[in-house]
Amino acid sequence: MTANAYRIKGDTGDWEVVIGLEVHAQVTSNAKLFSGAATTFGAEPNSQVSLVDAAMPGMLPVPNRECIRQAVRTGMAIDAQINKWSRFDRKNYFYADLPQGYQISQLYHPLVGEGSVEIEVDGTAKTIGVERIHVEQDAGKLMHDQHPTRSYVDLNRSGVALMEIVSRPDLSSPAEAGAYLRKLRAILRYVGSCDGNMEEGSMRADVNVSVRRAGEPLGMRTETKNVNSVRFVMAAIEHEAARQVEVLEAGGAIVQETRLFNPDSGTTRSMRSKEDAHDYRYFPDPDLLPLELDDDFLADCRASLPELPDAKRARYEGLGITPYNADVLTAEVESARWFDALLEAGAKPVAAANWVTSELFGALNRLGKQIVDSPVTPGQAAELLALVADGTLSGSLAKQVFEAMLETGDAPGKIVEERGLKQTSDTGAIEAVIADVLARNPGQLEQYRGGKVTLFGFFVGQTMKAMGGKANPAVVNDLLKKALG
């Protein structure tokens, strides 16, 4: 992105920022990676813990086929290499929320190899490389606010399946990192392999940042752990890059370390020195056989993939929908599904896209609702748009009908009949109203005929008002032109 390169201006010149993201995405599955314990969010502490999750002696892990399937489908969605042979490793470290004393992960032979994600920032496209996707189990959670001097351990998350999606250091600005995270989240949600709910912790990012002068080798990086929103990731990068530039320009050195982000202050702070792979003493897990995937399993995974965001956006644009509207409609999988249902109900693509992105989204925002909770169904919306297209409703009448649909949930045809909102094209009735409007406004009529043609809109408005908005605007325009000579 040379034209829009992001630079930090220091006292001694400009600095480039180099960013890589490690995204931890909770796999959509009813059971954990190596046990049958449930994964429901918000359950009572330690109510979803099996003997395997608690690391009871003699308990052996058994891989969950669905978790492996979801990870493979995710890899396919980013055109990544799927490794038919992979292996689990033990990552050894001690922490109170890790009952085994190690995490089962994948280091040397991951399930998914190299892929890529396409992003766009300020109209400029860029390909972000994905180095790998490996599957691992989550740790538990320490609860510090239950007692003034003690911390409690909740193992509900212990053993939950995660995909760690590791990007290459191809990101060079907070905006690019934000675009990458949003795009990756959209892909995961379309595929159905992760719900992408960052607030609930089912998707979070470790943010690797370094700075350098243009043309220099990569600088020393820091890793900011467990950042749980796109906005916070962008803020963490901005602060951390500026901090590193300040340290370097003061003659200091960047320490390889793990840091934490404070969302209240927008700053990062040191947590601990950064461990390298050898510090974790990785070795193949002796309790688990290697994963070997056959062609039938891979074919089933590929056949189950839905139409992905980029393909859907291209299809919408091919229907004549503007690129902006296509972006808005495909940003969230629920919106795209709702819009597809609207098209299947017979709505015309361009008119439907304009109506959804303005009228429907505006109403839902006002009501504080998501599109999955819309009081109006795609079938009802298609009927409303058809009434506009065939001249039964004018634009203003359609707005009235839509408001009534939101309030009652009734079909538009029923509302039109019960409330007498049908548009009229009766030329005799419209001519009579126009004659009355002109007679009641002699001053404006004289000004119009004297050359003040902008008053034409005034006469249109008065006529429409007199007819309660039910007159066909095109007919009103034609008849007014004749009446005004």
Written description of the protein model:
The protein has 485 residues and is α+β, with helices and mostly antiparallel strands. The protein is 39% helix and 20% strand. The chain is built from 15 helices and 16 strands. The chain has helices at 65-77, 174-191, 230-249, 295-303, 309-318, 323-330, 333-344, 349-367, 378-389, 395-408, 412-419, 427-440, 442-449, 456-466, 473-483, and strands at 7-10, 13-26, 85-86, 89-92, 102-105, 115-121, 124-137, 141-143, 152-154, 161-167, 203-212, 222-227, 257-262, 267-273, 283-284, 291-292. Strands 1, 2, 6, 7, 10, 11, 12, 13 and 14 form a nine-stranded mixed β-sheet that branches. A three-stranded antiparallel β-sheet has the order 5-4-15, with no helix packed on it. A two-stranded antiparallel ribbon has the order 3-16. Helix 2 (174-191) packs antiparallel against helix 3 and helix 14 (456-466) packs across helix 15 (473-483).
